[in-house]
Amino acid sequence: MGSIAGEIVNLHSNGIWLYDIKIPFIDLGNPPSNGTEWRWNLFQIDKNLQGERHYWAWSPTGEVQFHLPQYFGTLEFHR
Q1: What average pLDDT does the segment 16-28 reach?
Q2: Where are the domains of the chain?
Q3: What is the pTM of this model?
Q4: How remote is the C-alpha of 12 from its chain's centroid?
């Protein structure tokens, strides 16, 4: 399988991050078509030295709960 690479393409003045991520879907057998949209989210849970957890989400759900697809963002595929 190929590698997955990502890089920050642009940081707009309004704080929006844009990423260009290359995923070798052809190796998975079914690459998405141009313009296909998926609902998705990214989450991270960190614990500090005091054992307190801190939660981060690409598209915040408003709760300490990441199984809320109605709050997911949209991933749009382009070639």
Answers
A1: 70
A2: 5-76
A3: 0.57
A4: 18
